[in-house]
Amino acid sequence: MKITRQEVEHVAHLARLHLEGEELDLMTEQLDMILSYVAKLEELDTEGVEPTTHAFSITNAFREDVVEPSLDQEKALANGPEHNEDSFVVPRVI
Amino acid sequence: MEPYELTIAEANTLLAEKKLSSVELTRSCLERIEATEKAISSFISLDPELALQAAAKADLHLQSGEGGGLCGVPLSVKDLLCTRDRTTTCGSKILENFAPPYDATVVEKLNSEGAVIVGKAAMDEFAMGSTSENCAYDIPSNPWNIECVAGGSSGGSASSVASGQVLGSLGSDTGGSIRQPASLCGIVGMKPTYGRVSRYGLVAFASSLDQIGPLTRDVSDCALMMQTICGYDRRDSTSVDRPVEDYSSFLTQGLRGVRVGVPREYFSDGLDPEVHKVVMDGVGVLRAAGAEIVDVSIPHIDYCVAAYYLIAPAEASSNLARYDGVAYGFRKAVTSDLVDMYKDTRSQGFGPEVKRRILIGTYALSSGYYDAYYKKASQVRTLLLNDFKRAWESCDLLISPVSPTPAWKKGEKADDPLAMYLSDIFTLSTNLAGLPGLSVPGGYSISGLPIGIQLQGPHFHEGELLKCGFNLEKGLNLERQIPAITA
C-alpha cells in the first residue's frame, strides 16, 4: 500500500474536500494505483540533478512602479455569491 | 460546396473578393450547428445573435478593404478562455455562472481582427482528461463515429472544426489537449512553445505546462491562426518577448537538408499496428520530399507519464485552491462554519477527476512527501529536457504518433484513471519540455477513424514544424472531407 484510507482523509482535509464512505474507499484505491505507478521514478538516479520548474526559463518580468488602470471594485465583486459594496461576504470566522 | 466546408484561407479569398459575406458564411455555420449539434454536442454555450452581429460588423470592415487575417471567420473557443460578460465555465459546475469581467488576450486578438466567435467549446472539467467525458455538461462526440470520444481535453474545439460547425478553434494544451483531439477527429492542432502565446485570461490548470493553440482543417489555416495569437504580452509574466515569424512563408519551403528524427522509444512493440503504419507512411513522405531520416533516442520518455501525473496535479492543486465559494458564482453552505463552506462548495462543485488530481497534487506537495514526489518528478523533467537537447544535435524535429490508438468508445476507459493517463504517453513530453508540437492528419483506421502524426521541434521552431506538416499534408494527399453526421 502506498497510501491508506486515513492518509487520503487527511489530504482531503488539507485540500478542503469532504470524502466519506464509498467515495473515500474508491479514491483510496485509485490513488494507491496511481502512486504505485509513479513510483517508477525511483528507478532513476537523480542525485545532484537540478529540478526544472519551467522548461523555458526567463528572468523576472518587472515594470515601472506606476499606477495603471485596473479592474474596478464593482466588476471584481460581481461574480461573488455574496458581497456588499466593497467586499466579499463569508460566514463568520471568529 | 457549402460555405461551412471552406477552409479559413479559402473563405478569406471569397470574402476579400466579395463573393461571400461574413453574414452568409456565419449563417451557413449556424445552420450546420443546428443540424449537427444534437449528435455532436461541441458547445457549452452558443450565441448566434452575437455571432451575426460580429459578422455584420466584419462585413463593414471587409467592404472598406480593412479586414485582418481572421476577419469575418466563424470560430469557436474552448470554454476556459475568458470572454467578457460571456459565461466561461471551464466545463465545471463550480463556474456555472462565471461571467469574466475581461477578455483573454487571445480573445481580444480575435475580436480586434473581426473574427466571429460563435460559441464556447466543450471540454474536460478544468482541462483534466483525454476524452472530454469529464465535462459537467453535454459530452462531445467524435464526428467520424458519434459513439466514440472526440478526445480531450479540447474535445469540443476539435469536434466543432471537424464536423463543419466552425472553420477553426482555439484550445489549450497542458499534456496533449489540442494535439490528441485533433488527431482523433482528423484535423490539425498545434501546441506552441511555452511563452509564445499569452496565457492571460486562460483559466489556469498547470501553469508551467499550459499553452493556447489553434485547431484547424489544414496546416495553412493553422499558420494563419498562429499569426494572430502569437506574440509578447506584458500581462503574462511568462510570455517571451521575441519577434513572431511569418508562419505562412515557411509552408512552401522545401525539405532538402531537414533532418527528421524517429525516436526509437516511441515505437515499442505495444504500439497499435494501424497507428504505426500511418506514422511510417508519414516518414516515407518526408523522405520522398527530400528530408533526411535519422534514428534518435529519448531515453527518459518512459518516465513522462509518471513525472507529468505528479507535476500537473501539484500545480493544479495550488491553482484550484481559489475555488472556495468566495469570489466565484457557486457556493454551498450547509452549516455556518467557514471551513465547512469551503469543503461543501468544493465537494459539490468539482467532479471526480478534478478531485482525484487535487488529492494527488496535495499529497505530492505535502510535508514529508515533497522530495520523493514533486522534487523527484521535477528532476526527471530536467533529464527529459537534456534528452531533447541531445536529440537536437542530430535532427531538426521529431516524428511520432499522437495517440497510441484511434478514438475509442465512450465509457471505455472512464472508470480506469491510470489507463486514461497512459493514453497521453506520446504528447506529455512536449509540455514537460516546453516544446512546440503539431498534430497532422495521417490516415484512417480500417474502421474509418482518423489517425494523426505528431511533429515536435526545438523551442520557437513552429515555422519548421508547419513547413514539415504542410509537406506531410501534400505528400499524403488525403481527401479533405467533413463526415456526414448521422444521429
Features of the shown structure:
heterodimer; A: 94 residues; mainly alpha; Histone, subunit A; B: 487 residues; alpha/beta; Amidase signature (AS) enzymes; 16 helices
Could you walk me through the main structural features you see in this protein, from its secondary elements to its overall organization?
The complex is a heterodimer of chains A (94) and B (487). Chain A has a domain at 5-42: Histone, subunit A. Chain A is 35% helix and 0% strand. The radius of gyration of chain A is 22 Å and the shape is flat. Chain A starts with a helix and ends in a 17-residue tail after the last helix. Chain A has helices at 5-14, 21-38, 73-77. With 94 residues, chain A is mainly α. Chain A has 3 helices and no strands. The mean pLDDT of chain A is 92. Chain B has 487 residues and is α/β, with parallel strands linked by helices. Chain B has a domain at 3-243: Amidase signature (AS) enzymes, CATH 3.90.1300. Chain B contains 16 helices and 13 strands. Chain B has an 11-stranded mixed beta sheet with strand order 1-3-2-6-8-7-12-13-11-9-10, with helices on both faces. A two-stranded antiparallel ribbon of chain B has the order 4-5. In chain B, helix 9 packs across helix 16 (462-476). Chain B is globular, with a radius of gyration of 21 Å. The two termini of chain B are 22 Å apart. At the A-B interface, helix 1 and helix 2 of A face helix 10, helix 11, helix 12, helix 13 and helix 14 of B.
